[in-house]
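In response to reviewer comment 3 from the previous cycle, which asked for concrete evidence that the modeling workflow produces usable outputs, we include below a single protein chain processed end to end. The sequence was submitted unchanged, and the resulting structure tokens are shown without manual editing.
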Amino acid sequence: MMASPLPSLDSLLRTPSVAVLLARFGRAATTETLRHVLADRRAGQRFHAPDEEILDQAADILAALFERSQKPVFNLTGTVLHTNLGRSPMPREAAEAAAEAMRSATSLEFDLGTGKRGERDNHIAPLLCRLTGAEAATVVNNNAAAVMLVLNTLALGKRVPVSRGELIEIGGAFRVPDIMSRAGAILHEVGTTNRTHPRDYVQAIGPETAALMRVHQANYAITGFTASVPTDTLARIAHDANLLLIEDLGSGSLIDLARWGLPHEPTPTEALAAGADVVTFSGDKLLGGPQAGLIVGNKAAIAQINANPLKRALRLDKGRLAALEVVLRLYLDPDRLVEKLPALRLLTRVEADIVATAERMAAVIKRAWPNRPVSVEFCRSQIGSGAMPVDLLPSAAVAIGGGALESLAAALRALPRPVIGRIAQDRMWLDCRCLEPAEEAAFEAQLPQLV
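The workflow returned the following structure tokens.
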């Protein structure tokens, strides 16, 4: 029996079953999609098809068009602060504060006391000053923007000595020398890759020098025969020459992580106490908040930075400001920080708890794939791909063997809530550090779709 000739667009829109598409996707999108399906079939000289086949094809196209491309995923990669997966998970109350701010008018730049225009930075600057000991503070949309704004303000057209060992590259081939160039500052490399001494900075200072800069090696480490200049020494050199010291901490932990058994990471408080005039750091890495570039320092420098026209182009929106304010307030109660800050909770999770999760998930996966070898294996988690990547934490993973691992990885990524693991040693590794007990049921519920 031959298929029916292609129907007209008008006849398809009068079909009773098209009402479902119209209700879900709207008339404009449904009509346009049906028009494209018909045109595609005519171009391919496929002139016969039943109405149901055309409507099904249109439904698939519309569903893909209206599906959100950014989805929540299960991060089982073994990297807790994964750059490609959004870095730090935020506390629920911070996410709720961001959503509430985005839904309505807020007092973003309105002083409720005076009834006049206010400053958006006032929502977070006092908190940052209290938490770091800074005289003043401001915030932009990420740390690269913070570095660029600081240099453009304080060193436009002037030289800034930086150690060769600190000319880092972050994700996406984004390099400190490139940021400095775009900021209008002139990079003056000093020292060597592995050793830089105080005299290297002293000899580099001249009439065209605006500031000295120190960049924390947050995403790599140089070991062996090395030497670097600490902040307090570099501050004395800068101040003796009547220059500023700028320090970029990158991942930016607000408190000493060593109290929870994690590797120590330099804090803004330490940098300022050692004499740094301006310190920049991220909000979405070790701090555990939304993407932001935080700038703290002395009043005169921060006032200059805030007066730069670029500040407006790089400023934070009201949603992220609301979330950041909530996260910063959590630091006022450090004794309960692990309980309330998801990033820190995941980083400090007890190994025995991770093993227990891995064993439960391994049993579930064995039932789903009885023909695949499945085992619980000791492994090590990475703190972050761009934050302390060389420091590893003991963890446990479900290791899945068998063939076609790339196909298995693709199937896991295609689940309603994608599961992202890693392939190594001819097995798929699902590191369970970031799979908390409250999410195990949701993870398990998806597995039958893979059988």
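The mean pLDDT is 92. We consider this sufficient to address the reviewer's concern, and the full set will be provided in the supplementary archive.
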